[in-house]
Amino acid sequence: MSEVRVAGVGLTSFGASPNRTGRDLFAEAADSAFEDADVSRTDVEIVRYGNFMGELAEHQGHQGPLMAEAAGVSAPATRYESACASSATAIRDAVVSIRNGESDVCLVGGAERMTHLGTAGATEALAIAADDLWEVRAGVTFPGAYGLMATAYFDQFGGGREDLAHVAVKNHVHALENEKAQYQREISVEDVLEAPAVSEPLGLYDSCPISDGAAALVLVSDEYAETHDLAAPVAITGSGQGGDRMALHDREHLARSPAADDAAAEAYEDADITADDVAAAEVHDCFTIAEVLAIESLGIVDRGEGIAAARDGYTTVDGPVPVNLSGGLKAKGHPVGATGASQLVELTHLLEGHHPHSDAIDGDTVVAHNAGGTVASCVVHVLEVVA
Amino acid sequence: MSDDVRNDGYDDWLDALEGDQAFYLECTAGHGSLPPRRVCPECGSGELSETPLPTAGELDTFTVTHVPTPAFADDAPYVTGIVDFGPVRVTGRVLELDPDEIEPGLTVEATVIETDTTGERLVGFRPR
Ligand SMILES: [Zn+2]
Description:
The complex is a heterodimer of chains A (387) and B (128).
Chain A: E1 4-11, H1 22-37, E2 46-50, H2 54-58, H3 63-70, E3 77-80, H4 86-99, E4 105-112, H5 118-127, H6 142-157, H7 161-174, H8 189-194, E5 197-200, E6 202-203, E7 213-221, H9 222-227, E8 234-243, H10 258-271, E9 280-282, H11 288-297, H12 306-309, H13 328-332, H14 336-352, E10 365-372, E11 377-385
Parallel strand pairs in A: 2-3, 2-4, 9-10
Antiparallel strand pairs in A: 1-7, 1-8, 4-7, 5-6, 8-11, 10-11
Chain B: H1 10-18, E1 23-27, E2 32-33, E3 48-52, E4 56-65, E5 78-84, E6 89-94, E7 107-114, E8 121-127
Parallel strand pairs in B: 6-8
Antiparallel strand pairs in B: 1-2, 1-3, 4-5, 4-7, 5-6, 7-8
The structure holds zinc ion.
The site of zinc ion has 7 residues of chain B, from loops.
């Protein structure tokens, strides 16, 4: 079985670029990835691309070939839609393809154009990740669904808004040196607590922003890397995917994410690691409570202890297992279809030693957690330095 | 989707709730689910029967939404809750109470209401 190497990575700035098309965003990210990889575009055999709301945001379906063309690649291309987990899902299939020997060079990534929709339009578009009949028609928004999970978590495990505020404060600190981040400014616990309510108990600063952006990676087989003398020390050594019932009310647990538990277990077994090996993680903190649930599913902390992890410094840049050193979705931004791929871009920089926080991690095994909806979909990847 | 197009199963369920005939779908193994279904989502059983929904349910969790989608622009702020009726949970609008008075464990019953913004039907929960 071939090993999957990360040959190159690319990222646009995340933030508000309302007049830039999705195709232009992805073209920029892919161009950076090819430049970083030193791989010829003509060697690409498949394109696997994630996007969530292209039909609503740009009146554009069938984005696979469009994005391959924008990237200057002539290869079969498929667009993956799995809500906020779209691009990690796309990457997972490229990993499988390389491992199976079906392809040696894959362009993967994702993009989303959102800010031109405005808050109401983006809220409406994001809500379609929920069950239209049984949730959206009942008034459930994306923040509303996580508000329901936060109330359930406080009820079952304790904790409160101030604990969640520390997650947001931490992620803003982590993003201070991230030049691609939407926000490079510190916020205080008071700022979070006093911000306008969005879906109580969650406020504006518990929520990731609405963002435009794209991410891309060039993945290659280890044989290709060797033949072409590529410097590609980072490998994707584990991949796992979990699923759950669509509507939150149909889940066994309202304050847990079994799909993430399953994705992590599969990815860890695949990479032959345990949670103790994890030196750092990029997790899907679309809302502060989501980071709490994610680190519990990844086994970074025990069940019920995720709420205190940021406050106690366990997941801060100085802590034993830093989480979201990029700033996470909260501060880096969340262009939905790009997010899962952007996590792998950040982790590759972290492991290769040219991330502002590369010195903060103790070990060379890191994980990415990308979740869709209220975690009815989840993909976890393990990245390691192998050479 | 046009407002005058029905969603069979879902709208039938709201009709039943309006007529005090609320039900859930029960498979032979006792799993509960909400329509439309051809098979049980838990075990795949194709033998589903309409079983009366217990009248009283318990509020499991809630949120107060201040930033709505356009379809709920005139409704916000509103309280959304998930209510456990035993065999199934249902999501809907918590009625009549101020957010300060609401906490998990509250006993409620389901009803059908209309949104202020569009007049579309949705599930409401009244304290009992
Ligand atoms: Zn069943």
